[in-house]
Write a structure and sequence with these properties.
Helix content is 8%, strand content 42%. With 145 residues, the chain is mainly β. The radius of gyration is 25 Å and the shape is elongated.
Length: 145
């Protein structure tokens, strides 16, 4: 039976969503699919595919620092609806950002990584670099006398 609850989060929540869902569950489902990432290992390196629905290329940034590859994405939108007198009927605004980091190793440089953004999907190719074995150097202490 659809009856509005008097102890809910918001009075209008019961009218605009299915009543068996909780507020947090609805909030989670809105962000589902954001920055879902697939990492595929190939002979040459790693192929990273990241879903960024609704994002534009200019709002996606990738940074490589101290061996960590960090992808930042942000978006904002405004929906203004006015009646014929210019009064607001509905006005909604949304701003959001998300970020993911991956350790790729300190031997990788930004020139090594190839990235392409198309249709809300970021594809990156990260090459494998052979780890250089640490060469043990002998350090002698000078003895005076």
């Amino acid at each position: 039976m659809l009856m509005p609850s008097i102890f809910g989060d918001e009075f209008f929540d019961d009218f605009f969503r299915y009543p068996t869902r909780s507020y947090n569950e609805t909030k989670f489902n809105q962000n589902a699919g954001m920055m879902n990432t697939d990492v595929k290992e190939t002979d040459q390196g790693y192929e990273v595919t990241m879903n960024l629905p609704g994002m534009k290329k200019e709002n996606v940034k990738a940074e490589l620092k101290d061996g960590y590859l960090t992808i930042n994405a942000s978006t904002s939108s405004e929906n203004d609806e006015k009646d014929e007198k210019g009064k607001y009927i509905r006005r909604e605004r949304y701003c959001g950002s998300c970020s993911r980091s991956f350790y790729v190793g300190e031997d990788i440089t930004q020139e090594d990584i190839k990235a392409k953004f198309e249709d809300g999907t970021l594809k990156m190719l990260i090459p494998k670099k052979d780890a250089k074995p640490a060469v043990e150097t002998k350090k002698y202490i000078s003895i005076e006398g």
